[in-house]
Amino acid sequence: RFCRYLNSNVCLCAVATEQKAPSKDEGIAAVRAKQSMQFDWALNKLDSSVRRTGRITKTLLLKIFHDICRTGFPSGNQALLLLRSCGSLLPEMQLSERTDLAHRIWDKLQELGAAYDVSHYNALLKVYLQNEHKFSPTDFLSKMESANVQPNRVTFQRLITAYCNEGDIEGASKILGFMKSKDLPITEVVFNSLVTGHARAGDMENAEGILTVMSGAGIEPGPDTYVALMNAYAEKGDIENVKQTLEKVEKTDASLMDRDLMQIIFSLAKSGYPQYVQDIVERMRHDRGYVPDAMNLCLSLITQGLEETAFQVLKTFPTLQSENQNGDSLDLGNFFIRHCINRDTTIDKLCHFCEQLMEANLHSTPFHFAVYCALDAKKSEMSIELMTIMQKKDLSVRPHYFWPLLAQYQKEKNTSGTIEVLKAMQNLGVEPDVETYANYVQSSFDSIETARTQLEGNGCLVNTVGFYASELRTEALNGNLDKVYSMLSLSENPAVDLSSFRGSLILGFKRSEDIDFLAKITELLYKDERYCQNSPGSTEAVGYFLYNLIDSMSDSEVQAKEEHLRQYFHQLNKMGIVIPANIYRGIRNLLDAYHIPELIKDVIVLVDEQDKLSAADLPKGSEDKIAALEARLAELKIENQPIGETVKQLILLLCGAENMQKALEVKTQYESDMAIGGYAALINLCCRHDNAEEAMNLKQEVDRKDSSATFDTNKYLALVRVLAKHGRVEDAILILKEMKEKKVALRDTTTTSFFHILNAVALKGEADAVKQLHESIVNLGLAKPTANLCSPLIGVHLHQGNLPAALDAIIDCQKKYDQMPRLHDVLCKLVDQGDTDLLQKAMDFVNQERGEMTMLYDLFFAFLQSGKYKEARKIIETPGLRARPGRLQWFADKCTATNQVEALENMVEMTQKLFECDRDQMYYYLLRLFKENNDWRKADATWTKMQEENVIPRERTLRLLAEILKISGQEIPFEVPESWYEDAARSTSSALNQATRTRTSDLPIDSASDYQRRLLMFCKKNSIQEAFNVFMEAEKKGLVFSSAAYSSFMNTLLSHGLLEEAMDVKSKVETRIKGFTLNDAANSLLIITQVRRDNLKDAASTLEEMLKVNQVPSQLAIARLVQALASKGDVEKIQFVEKLMSNLARPINLSKMLFINNLVLAHIKNNNIDTAVEYVEPFYIPGENSSQQQATSMSYVFRKILEENYEAAIDKLSAMAERLANHFAVYKPGTDLFLQYVDLDRTEAAKLLLQRCPAIAEQKKSLISFIAKTAQKPGQAHKITGLLDLIKDFPEKEVVYSYLMKCYALDNDVVSAKALYEKVKEEKLIPDELFLKRLAVLLKNSGESLSFTEPPESFKFYADKLRREKAAESSDENQDGD
């Protein structure tokens, strides 16, 4: 919308040529280049804002205005952009403020040298009209005349509107007469203004008569005319005539949108007739885009002081009613509350709105949000008043709510303001916490003593934990450790946990050189239980304090204070302070990282004796560890002390040093004292050294010592690997069985390890061994038979060259495991050897199992791989074959990985006419390979081929090609897509060079081909103004472009909704090229644009003309046209379009339900509900659909009728769905309706339907699909829980709970997430890693501890793992990849 609004006027109405900078002034040229980039940025920024919200903010507009002023050279385009934004796009500003801003912008830019033409004056006129600014039209014309600017038709039209808005028909008539004398066309806009003018002059009879005059002039009254008339009635409070006009419009071709009705609502409310607003509200259809339009209406009403009417509109928001428990509803309610606060709505009225929002369940915390907005707007009195009301309503008021107020006074050093806020908190019973005092109160006063004295003197409580902790913080930060120690020592001071002042104390420690005080304070923290309330004990509290102290220091700080720290640790040791071993390990790692291992020995003495330290805990880099442990062993043996733990540590050290011989000797020497952990490390060491015999002997020793002993997964896998490698298959299978019996935890990498084990055996050619091991792994359930795991079964035969056996193995895998591993490799070998019989056998089998299309792709890739390009072409040209992006990408990736340039080039060339083949993507694969090979010549040739094929490259393709050429030092023959800020960051000279290179309008151009190249370049960049300039220059010179170039240009115009401009270009081109027609893409865009304009008749005609010349429309164009026809109830025209599309030579993969669903909706629109049911029901009844395609989903129909509340249609289609389910066991319609009920929160309706059709609960695929889709957006958890409540025995609850946890994570709902985790444990379900990862991150972000081990990898890792597991279960996904 906004693109069209700006571009059609900014780019085409006025500025036909851009001012050229003087060539002698390079500085100005550079500024102009940068200025152009800034304009693009400003346009995109404003465009984005309006697209999302239908408005812009004053802050954004002023920012752009200041940025443009800063350059010193504002262009006409920039001035026009800013002026147009000062009207109705600023609903949050008062009308007079908007006009003042427009005048400010006008004067400032004119002062800076902006050249104004008629488009700028017209823009200012439009702003005046939108802002209801009173001005003299004659003075305005005089102003234009003095500036030597001639008014045009638009100027006169808007001046007529200005007169009419004041009811001055005489003034309007003068301008109207002048327009007639100049033969200027009198358009619908003028008549609409006259309707308003007569009405405001008190002559409603003549206002109504304008419609007759229009018809006499050959202009049919459109929607805007009827809106003007109804606004006139609304301003007089004549609701009956408004209703009659609405009924009259419904019988005409004119179609009123919700936005039109909103104008009537605004007129009624502003004219003092809010009692009639509900009559119009009830007629809203809630079209697409209703919410942003309604939001803007609410904002405008609030700005005008009409909050009650705005609230009445707010309650109609469909999203609020259907999603009243999610975050979106809060957003929709938030804008209303915020604007009320900004416009200083009275507290009573504001509270009334908040109460109604809560009662209607439209907003969960409106009072809290109102406080937030008041604080944000720095409205102190309103904030405190709201918090007082909240407390009376038993709503929570917390200390941090007051922080913005305190921060404001803190900044101003306003102690009296700070005291007033603290007194207000005290009156509300809100005790300031340590953060409040430390961060927002103490710094407002000169000292702690001053703060305490003044607060006490003004009746503020200071003998609290919060104030005391803040004093500790302040003294510690100031380095006054003596005062800190004194305060901590006093028993009468309140108990405060170390965590509340630990950070400040650490900073004080780092600044102090007094080791005695450091040690005394640490001892006090260790021995006084008051300071470790939230810790498991004093050892942990002090341990973490020491860890945080070291962690807060940089390596240079630790090095500088090494001796200082050593003395500090020694003092702590003398005081008997100990720390846990796990915290010691953290400190040790920090000191290692700081390269100060010498301090470790000083920390290790603090470790609690009850905590056992292993050899690995000793200081790293100690070369005599092993010798020390051996000496220790000898001492323990002499003393007759237990040596088991020391033996284990010695074995682990030797294994870490890869000293197998010495480790085995130690095992033999101390066999009776060997622990299972030592054996496990030894077995692993023997496996690494390929010693199968010794590894198995050790395993048997373990079994004799303790048959229940279990190793970790990696050690078992290492044992299986070495046994299989040495041919001890039976022993390997015994280990596998043990893994199953002892329920060894399997990881996601286990399957990969099994593959490598099997592949190693396959490389040795031992087919029987591979088969035995594979069957054992699969039958024991240790891994799923994925394609990768099964591939060694085929690989063993391929390595031996036994192709018949390899093919038989593939067939066996398919029958047993539904997998076809290494099929491509086998087919390539068969093609190379020319074994047609075996190849035919393979293809017949694939065709039978996977279908003809899969078989053709397999054969196509085999021929390509083998260089049989003639045969490959025959395959890919098979009639009916369509592109499978996944399969094509698989082969392209394979060619890139193996550097098969010729094969990939042939694939790209052969798929040129493949249906639905993404040609840009295919060329991207090719360019990617050329980049790998640094082959710029082939890349350049590819660019030429793309142009010959008329491929429109994406930006990433152009960037890749540009990169290849740039690396090789070649000239880039096109504009490289890049962001404006990348250019702005360059130096002035670089910017000048870039500007000189890219300003093609300054270059000498002689031929039509040069102009055509520029036109296409600007079209690609979406630079409509420049493209239009090139086109007009070429027209003046009589140059003719190719049909494709003209089509591309019109394509660009239509993509921005510029229908009239595109048609004007088309009429010009038709005079130059006989029989010219738009191409497929442009005509498709034309259809879409005509549908948007509600010109359905023209759209259908365009489609018919396309098909006559064998053009193929886009899916989107047909979908938009059919949906629009359905909204009009035009059954005949939908059937006509369906018939047209059925005769297409090339099908465009339209959904079969497009026509079915929209025909049903068209019948319903015409109130022929029985006809709709009779039409659609046979599509679902088995046996009655032999000549038609089976129907799939009616969700679209159900959604539409439920949203529009067609009760009669709902009843009859619901009855049909139940009939199909209960009589014919066809559950899809019933399931679709049930899920729509759930999605729209119609729980009771869903429950009743489920009771009547209980089989809906068994439609697992549809239910899981709904849940997966629902979990993509925040605030949807209640829908999934509601579904679980309806279906108690829901299938695959683990999957559902995983999606539910995703919802809670999106909503940051810690409480619900923890409850779900407990529920999973109660139901004895095993959550997947993604579930646990989401829960862990959610808990950590909320500062809560974990009761389980957090999965260590990233979200992506576990998401990919789940996808792989699903892929392993789905043969189609494995083979086809799409």
Which spans of ≥5 residues are poorly predicted at pLDDT below 50?
1-33, 320-331, 978-1006, 1184-1189, 1370-1378
The share of residues in extended strands comes to under 5%
Shape: globular
- Count all strands and give the number: 0
Mind explaining what this structure looks like?
By secondary structure, the chain is an all-alpha fold. It has 78 helices and no strands. The longest helix has 28 residues, at 26-53. It is globular, with a radius of gyration of 39 Å. Mean pLDDT is 81; it is low at 1-33, 320-331, 978-1006, 1184-1189 and 1370-1378.
Summed up:
With 1378 residues, the chain is mostly helical.
Please name the defining characteristics of this protein.
78 helices, disordered C terminus, 1378 residues, mainly alpha
